[in-house]
Design brief:
The complex is a heterodimer of chains A (164) and B (194). Helices cover 46% and strands 21% of the residues of chain A. With 164 residues, chain A is an alpha+beta fold. Chain A has a single domain (10-161), classed as Beta-Lactamase, CATH 3.30.450. In chain B, strands 1, 2, 3, 4, 5, 6, 7 and 8 form an 8-stranded mixed beta sheet that branches. The chains are: A alpha+beta (164), B alpha/beta (194). Strand 1 of chain A pairs parallel with strand 1 (3-5) of chain B, so a sheet runs across the interface.
Chain lengths: 164, 194
């Protein structure tokens, strides 16, 4: 079965932002962001003004998916860490709880060792938040008449999206 | 898997264009890109070979405005159509919410169309999806070319479940938005049932 829909409520989102913010400070990184494995950006902190985070999210997910495919070809379950070294900026990519991708962009003010160390702690904290969110999602989907804002979607709503 | 961020009030859906090599998937995306207001679209990314064949995927994010107070984003992807890129196609189907099958109307490509639909069905099953229930539309592309099959004959050959079918010429844009809108409609209407 495909993974269940991911629901993120305000309190979890807040906690995720705080973890990312702390990771960014502790590792002296420029940008820290979280993407789900399908390429949807979940959260991001840091110098984001000049960064195309949507493209970054999609390409990161594609990169991880391709690398996962390579891992399986040689009999590994996954490569849990990817590292891309540039002239000035570097990308550290790691997997959180098999479902989410944590990306850290840093330059020579930091180091790979420091980033790896801080990422390890943040990963454990993030995994906990996602576990709790998943448990909450399961619990709430058991409530038969859970109200979603989309239960009232009409054809007119959809026409409006494509009106221009 | 629709990603709903209640905190940021965002709704993200993934739509994939599938079909045999050179059927016009990338051309569909280019037309959507060209005809969408710059504020509503992101950068279009094409991971292509030197000869402009899709190697991994094309990607186009669209921000279509709010539905019920939620900012609605569609992430459009194409798969590489060439038969030997099957491993890449499987990866791109992960987390798909809706599918557009782009069929090449030329008579000589009918076998490739049939083979590609069979491949889609197999790859969806492997990911735990069912073509019978996933939002899906069939697009009969390249209607402007000579030596094409009549639309009703193509429908008979290629339809899998009575899905909505659109005739198109992606190079001019005819039928492109109609197909996209239909699948977007099905994806959003699916949310209603959840």
């Amino acid at each position: 079965m495909p993974p269940p829909d991911l629901f993120l409520y305000s309190d979890e989102f807040q906690r995720i932002q705080e973890i990312l913010q702390r990771l960014r400070q502790d590792s002296s990184a420029n940008v820290v962001f979280l993407v789900d494995k399908n390429g949807q950006q979940i959260a991001a902190v840091g110098d984001l003004e000049t960064l195309d985070t949507t493209s970054l999210a999609s390409l990161t997910a594609g990169n991880v998916a391709a690398t996962d495919g390579l891992a399986r070809l040689i009999g590994e379950r996954e490569f849990s860490i990817l590292f891309h070294e540039g002239e000035k900026d570097h990308l550290h990519i790691s997997i959180v709880g098999e479902r989410v991708i944590l990306v850290v962009i840093f330059d020579d003010r930091s180091s790979l060792g420091l980033v790896r160390l801080r990422v390890r702690r943040a990963t454990a904290e993030l995994a906990k938040v996602f576990q709790e969110a998943a448990a909450k999602g399961e619990k709430e989907s058991l409530v038969a008449d859970l109200e979603t804002p989309f239960s009232e979607i009409t054809e007119e709503d959809i026409d409006r999206l494509f009106s221009e | 898997m629709v990603f709903i961020n209640y905190a940021a009030r965002e709704l993200n859906c993934k739509i994939v264009y599938y079909g045999p090599g050179l059927c016009g998937k990338t051309t569909n995306l280019r037309h959507v890109y060209d005809r969408t207001d710059a504020a509503a679209r992101g950068r279009m990314i094409s991971l292509a070979t030197d000869t402009d064949r899709t190697l991994f995927f094309d990607f186009l994010p669209l921000d279509l405005g709010p539905v019920r107070g939620f900012q609605t984003r569609f992430h459009l992807y194409t798969v590489p159509g060439q038969v030997f890129y099957d491993a890449s196609r499987k990866l791109i189907l992960k987390g798909v919410d809706g599918l557009i099958f782009v069929a090449d109307s030329q008579e000589a490509r009918m076998e490739a169309n049939v083979e590609s639909i069979r491949n889609l069905d197999k790859n969806l099953k492997e990911q735990g999806y069912d073509i019978a229930t996933i939002p899906y539309a069939l697009q009969l592309n390249k209607r402007d070319l000579p030596a094409i099959l009549p639309a009703d004959e193509m429908s008979r050959l290629l339809k899998v479940k009575g899905e909505p079918t659109f005739e198109s010429t992606a190079t001019t844009g005819a039928g492109v938005f109609e197909t996209l809108k239909e699948v977007a409609r099905q994806v959003l209407m699916d949310l209603k049932k959840k």
